[in-house]
Amino acid sequence: MKIKETLNLGKTKFPMRGNLPQKEAERENNWFENKVYEKRQQLNEGKPSFMLHDGPPYANGNIHIGHAMNKISKDIIVRYKSMSGYYAPFVPGWDTHGLPIEQQLTKAGKDRKAAGPVKWRKMAAEFADKQVKTQMADFKRLGISADWDHPYLTKQPQYEAEQLRVFGKMAKRGLIYRGKKPVFWSWSSESAMAMAEIEYHDVTSTSVSFAERVKDGKDILDNDTYFIVWTTTPWTIPASEAIAVNPSFKYDVVQPAGSERKFVVADALLGSAAQAYGWGDDYEVVKTVQGSDLDRMTAQHPYMDREILVINGDHVTADAGTGLVHTAPGFGEDDFAIGQKYDLPIIMNVDDRGYMTEEAGPDFEGVFYDDANAISLKKLEENDALIKAEDITHSYPFDWRTKKPVIFRAVPQWFASIEPIRQEILDSLDGVNFQPEWGHKRLANMIRDRGDWVISRQRVWGVPLPIFYAEDGTAILEQSIIDHVADLVAQNGSDVWFEREAKELLPEGYTNEHSPNGEFTKETDIMDVWFDSGSSHTAVMAQRPELSFPEDLVLEGSDQYRGWFNSSLITSVAIHDKAPYRRVISQGFTLDGNGDKMSKSIGNTVSPNDITKKMGAEIIRLWVTSVDTSGDVRVSEDILSKTSEVYRKIRNTMRYLLSNTSDYNPMENAVPYRDLTPVDQYFFAHFNELVRDMRRAYDEYDFQQVYKLLINFINVDLSAFYLDFAKDILYVEAPNGHARRSLQTVLYRILVDLDKLILPILPHTAEEIFDYLPYEAGDYAFLTEMPAVEDLGNVTPLITRWTDFMSLRDAVNKALEVARDEKLIGKPSEAAVTLYLTDDQQMLVDSLGQDIRVILMVSQLTLANVADAGDAPEYDGYHIKVEHAAGEVSPRDRMYHLDLGTDPTFPMLSAHEAEIVRANYPEAVVEGLED
C-alpha cells in the first residue's frame, strides 16, 4: 500500500477555474427560470420591510460602468437585507421620456415635424422599449436580483396618470403658475431647461466696454458725459433697456487728457479701468456722484433709436468692469428682476433656435446669436461707442445633453413655485440620514438657493401639462379636470392628449365662465422629465401593493443632488408634507485608470459588457466593493485584472475548504465548541467576530469595509495562519480523530457562513459553492439566511491569549528566516527550536493548553527558562535558538522524528503515525507501506 493512500488528501469536484463568462450566464438563466427572486420574496412575506427605491436610469444605449457600479451596489444591499430578515422587494425602473430619445430618432433620419406629434410619440415609445430591453439584459448579466417581469417605466399609463395627479395636487396647493421670466434656454434642444439639466464649462467670451451718452442727467451730469457700460454678451445690446448702477457705490466723472468727452466709472474700479482704456494716470476727476443720485437718469442707446434708463441695483459688484452694467431684462435673471421693479419692457429678439428676429433690427435679423457679437461690436465702433473689447475666460452654462451653450431667455413658461414650501422642504431633511454626511448640506443649500422650477418643455415626447385655456386665455387648472385627464391617461396612455381635441379631453358638458361659446384649447408643452422621475415615490412606491412609501433608501450618483434627489423631494413635500426617503447614499463618478473623465470620443471608457465577456460579472461586482464609492473611483481593464487575481484567491480558498471538508458530515462529525481544541476554539471565536464585523459593515452600507475584512481574513487569518498549519492535521491525523474533526468543524462553519457572507457580492460563485454543500438545506444559497453571531460567552481572555501568541509566532518565524538565510535549514519542518521564556512568557504558553509545536510547524520544540538563554538571539523580546532537527524525516508527514521504526511493521513512520495507520488502514498491516 502506498503511503499517500494513508493520507487524508482533500477531494472536490469544485473547479479551480470559474469560467465565469460562460457559467455565470447559465446560472442567471437558472435563477430566472426557477424564479429565485420570487421565491425569496415569498419566504420574506410578513417580515419587517426594507424599501430601496431604484432611481430610474435613462433608457438610451447600453449601460456604462457607472450604471454597473450603481446597480450592483443596490443589489448587494437588497440581497443582504433579503437574507437578514427583511422583506426587500426591488423594482427596477427606467426614465423613458425626454429629448435624448427624440435626438436619437432625428439621428436615425426621422423628421419630427413631418411625422406629427402622434406618430412621433409612437416612434419614440418603440425606441424607448428597445432601449429598456437592451439595458435590462445588461443589468441581468451583472447578476442583479430584481422584479424584472414588472419594472416601472415612466411612460407606463398608470405611472403617467399618477404623475398627473401629483401635478394636480400641487396646482390645488397653488404651487403651479405661468410666468414670463428668463429661464435657461437650449437653442440646440429648442426647449427651456431646468437647473438640473445644466452643466458649466469654461468659455472664452468678448468683454465689451461701450459708451452711452447722457440724455437727462438730472442737472447733475452734462450731455457731453458718457456712461461706460460693461457686458460679456454684446449680442444682447440690441435688447438693452437700462444701465444698472449700485446705489451705494461712488461714481467718478472722468475726463481723460485730450478728450472732449467725460466718462462715468465706479470710483472703486477707476484705477483698473484707466489702465485698460489707455488713460494711464493722465485724467481728471471732474466730480464724484453717489450711485443713488444716478437713479432714473437717461442715456442714448449707442446704435438704436432708444432711450436707456439708469437704474439702481444691488446686484452690481466691483469685481470687474466699470460698475455700470448693461441690462436686457429678457436675457438675464438679475436683469429681469430689476426690470420688473422698474417696469421695463421685455424685448425678446432671439427665437427658439437661437436666431435673431426682426425685432433686433435689419442688421441682425436671421443671424445666429453668437455671430451677432461681431455685428454688435462693429456697430459700436461705427458709432464711436466702443471703448474696449477683450477676450475673457469664464464659467458658462451648457445643455448637459447636447453639450452646447445655453442662453437666458424670457418666454412664457409653467413653473412650480418653491418659495411657499422652501422651509418645509428644508425642515423635512432633518429626518433624513445622508451618506456621506455632507450630502445633507449640499442638498439643503441647493434647495435654499434655487429659484422656481421651470417645468414646461417645448417638446413632444413626454407627459403633457394637463392644462386647458378658455376663450379669453385663462388657464384652467381645476383638480377635478386634471383628475379626469389622469383617468383618461390611465386607460389610454398620454398619447390620448395628442390624439384628441381639447373638448374631447374635458368632461362631457363641462362649462367655464371664461368660455361663453364653449370653446377650449389645450397646452402643447410637456412636463420636464425631472417631474416624471420626481413623481416615482407616488407613482411606484405608494401605488404598488408590495412596496411602501416613504422609501428606506435611495442610492444614486452625486449628480442627483441637483436631479432626482432634488425633484422627488420637492414633489413629495408638496403633496405628502414629508421627504420621500429616509436615507440618501450618494456615489462618485467612475474615472479611467489615470483619474480622467471617461469619454467615448477619447476611447477611455470601460464597457461592462466587454468585461463580463472577458472576465465575468463577479470581477466587476468585487471591484465595486473594493473601492470607496462615496467619492470618484478609478477603473480600467488593468485594475479589473488585478481584481480578478483577488477573486482567484477567494475562489481557491473556498475550494480548499470544500476539499478538506468533503468527508465531513456536520450531523455526525461536528465537535461541540466546548470540546474543540484550544486553537480551534480561538479561531471559531475569531471567525464569529468576523461574522459580527462583516454584518455590521453591511448594515452600515460600507462595502469597502466588507471587502477589507474578507480579504484580510482570507490572506492573513486563514492562508497565513490557520490553513498553514491545518494541513498537517488534516492530512496526517486519523480520519475520524478528534484533532482532525475539531479542525474540520471550524473549517466547515467558515465555509458555510463565509459562502453566505460573500453572496451579496459574489452571488454566482456563492451559489456554485452551495451546490457542493450537500448537508445544507435549500436549493439556493440566496434562499438561506445570513449567519448569526453565536453567543460564546466571554471569549475576550481566549482571544487575548492567542493574539499574544501571534507575537511569539512572529518572533519564531523571524528566527526561522535567519536560519534559512544562514543555510541552517531549508524549511520550518527541518528546524528544532528552543524557546527561552520568561515567567510571563511561560505562563502564556501554558495558558494556551495546546502543543504549539504543530502550530509553529517545526519538527522539535523545547521550552527552557530565559536564565539559560546564553547567547541565543533575541527576536521581539523572545530568546530563540534554531538548530537543524535531529533524527530522520518521515515520508508521510515530512517531519523529523527520533522514534522512526518504533513499530517494526512501519519502519519509516513515527510511533504516532504508525498508530494511526494500524488503526485506520488494516490493509497496510498486511501489505506493508511503500513511498
**Rough outline:** elongated
- Poorly predicted regions are none
Distance between the termini: 9 Å
Q: How would you describe the oligomerization state of the chains in this entry?
A: single chain
Kindly state the percentage of residues in helix: 25-40%
Strand content: 15-25%
Q: Which class best fits the helix and strand makeup? A: alpha/beta
Radius of gyration, taken over Cα atoms and rounded to an integer in Å: 39 Å
* Arithmetic mean pLDDT: 93
Largest sheet: 10 strands, mixed
Q: How is this structure best summarized?
A:
This protein is of the alpha/beta class and about 950 residues long.
Description:
- With 931 residues, the protein is α/β, with parallel strands linked by helices.
- It is built from 31 helices and 33 strands.
- The strands form 9 sheets. Strands 6, 7, 8, 9, 10, 11, 12, 13, 14 and 15 form a 10-stranded mixed beta sheet that branches. It has a 4-stranded parallel beta sheet with strand order 1-24-25-17, sandwiched between helices. A 4-stranded antiparallel beta sheet has the order 5-4-16-18.
- The longest helix has 30 residues, at 703-732.
- The radius of gyration is 39 Å and the shape is elongated.
Keywords for this entry:
931 residues, alpha/beta, 10-stranded mixed β-sheet, 4-stranded parallel β-sheet, 31 helices
Topology:
Blueprint: H1 20-33, H2 36-44, E1 52-53, H3 65-82, E2 93-94, H4 99-107, H5 112-115, H6 117-140, E3 152-153, H7 157-172, E4 176-186, E5 191-193, E6 198-216, E7 225-231, E8 242-245, E9 250-256, E10 262-266, H8 270-276, E11 283-290, E12 298-300, E13 307-312, E14 324-327, H9 333-341, H10 372-382, E15 386-399, E16 407-416, H11 422-428, E17 433-435, H12 438-449, E18 453-454, E19 456-457, E20 468-469, E21 475-476, H13 479-492, H14 495-499, H15 502-505, E22 521-522, E23 526-527, H16 529-533, H17 536-541, E24 553-557, H18 564-576, E25 583-587, E26 590-591, H19 608-614, H20 617-626, E27 633-634, H21 637-659, H22 666-669, H23 678-699, H24 703-732, H25 738-758, H26 763-770, H27 796-821, E28 831-837, H28 839-848, H29 852-856, E29 860-865, E30 874-875, E31 878-884, E32 888-889, E33 896-897, H30 911-920, H31 922-927
Parallel strand pairs: 1-24, 2-3, 7-10, 8-13, 17-25, 24-25, 26-27, 28-29
Antiparallel strand pairs: 4-5, 4-16, 6-7, 6-12, 6-15, 8-14, 9-10, 9-11, 12-13, 16-18, 19-23, 20-21, 20-22, 28-31, 30-31, 32-33
Helix pairs in contact: 3-20, 7-13, 19-20, 20-21, 20-24, 21-24, 23-24, 23-25, 24-25, 25-26, 27-28
